[in-house]
Amino acid sequence: MAALDTTRFASTGSFGLVGRIGAFLVSAVNAAVEWNDARVTRNALTGLSDRELEDIGLCRGDIDAIAQGRR
What we know:
Layout: H1 14-46, H2 50-55, H3 63-67
Pfam families: YjiS-like
InterPro entries: YjiS-like
Protein name: DUF1127 domain-containing protein
């Protein structure tokens, strides 16, 4: 009598390739989302007047650092 193990995926490497492609696509989408978030933040802060930036404790030179999440 033969037994069939259905709890494992084929180990021929095809699942690994699909996993790597999926991981690449996820990282590309994440990079695009992070870029867009930084762009939106930069545009919102650039639209503020110097007085408004001063009210929240920032100056024009801080905008890029804030948008990139470094501050």
